[in-house]
């Protein structure tokens, strides 16, 4: 009986405790692996939400950056015209907000204005800049420095008058209107604004006058004539009209 028990115990011990192809490391590895996976999941869970939040903000900033790159990599002149701060009284105190008015131009005959609101000033400016880039208009310039002809514009109570000027005059304009012409690339112009000092109405009235600007080249194409023929109607000779027509770029 003793011999049989010893024989049975010795025969069962190698099969139950340690298999021929297993090692102690293989036995302990499955027990340690779930703990490592839990730790990795825990770190991923804590870091995942933070990475997602940071990634979300990064994607929004990238979208703003791509908005400027979509314009062909051009360098824009950005002018901050006005910032308005408003407050709202709530249960815990006052909640402040900011509104920004920005004018953007490429300095080569294109300009636009935009309005943005946000809780912080930088975000309001970025919103207004993005809106201004989307609403840019092209204005024909004479010799790349002044307007082709005089113009008038009004919006609400604001009325503006724009006049072409000879070289060396400079920008005779004040406040918001100066920002428009500097971003547009106009070097010589004389302006007058009456009726209001509200920067929003002045900017809108100025752009209303600029959108009515036309060039002799566009008029000649619309009427099916040559630019020299239009210039000769002012009393100029054929040679002078031809030279002036060649000098007109737009």
- What's the multimeric state? single chain
Q: Output mean pLDDT.
A: 75
Strand content: 15-25%
How many beta strands in the DSSP annotation?
A: 8
Question: Which strands sit side by side, in order, in the main sheet?
Answer: 1-2-3-4
Structural class call reads: alpha+beta
Task: Describe what this molecule looks like in 3D.
This protein is α+β, with helices and mostly antiparallel strands and 250 residues long. It has a domain at 139-247: Ribosomal Protein S5, domain 2. Helices cover 48% and strands 23% of the residues. A four-stranded antiparallel beta sheet has the order 1-2-3-4. It has a four-stranded mixed beta sheet with strand order 5-6-8-7. It starts with a helix and ends with a helix.
């Amino acid at each position: 009986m003793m011999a049989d028990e010893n024989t049975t115990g010795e025969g069962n011990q190698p099969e139950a405790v340690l298999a021929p192809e297993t090692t102690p490391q293989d036995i302990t590895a499955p027990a340690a692996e779930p703990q490592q996976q839990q730790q990795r999941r825990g770190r991923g869970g804590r870091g995942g939400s933070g990475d997602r939040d940071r990634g979300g903000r990064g994607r929004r900033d990238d979208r703003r950056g791509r908005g400027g790159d979509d314009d062909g990599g051009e360098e824009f002149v950005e002018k901050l015209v006005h910032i308005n701060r408003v407050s709202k009284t709530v249960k815990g105190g006052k909640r402040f907000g900011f509104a920004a008015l920005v004018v953007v131009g490429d300095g080569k005959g294109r300009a636009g204005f935009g309005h943005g609101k946000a809780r912080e000033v930088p975000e309001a400016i970025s919103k207004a800049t993005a809106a201004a880039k989307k609403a840019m208009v092209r204005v024909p310039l004479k010799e790349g420095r002044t307007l082709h002809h005089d113009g008038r514009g009004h919006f609400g109570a604001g009325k503006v008058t724009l006049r072409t000027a000879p070289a060396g005059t400079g920008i005779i304009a004040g406040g918001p209107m100066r920002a428009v012409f500097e971003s547009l690339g106009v070097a010589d112009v004389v302006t007058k604004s009456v009726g209001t000092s509200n920067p929003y109405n002045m900017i809108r009235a100025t752009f209303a006058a600029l959108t009515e600007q036309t060039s002799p080249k566009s008029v000649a194409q619309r009427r099916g004539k040559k630019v020299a023929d239009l210039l000769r109607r002012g009393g100029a000779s054929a040679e002078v009209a031809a030279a002036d027509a060649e000098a007109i770029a737009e």
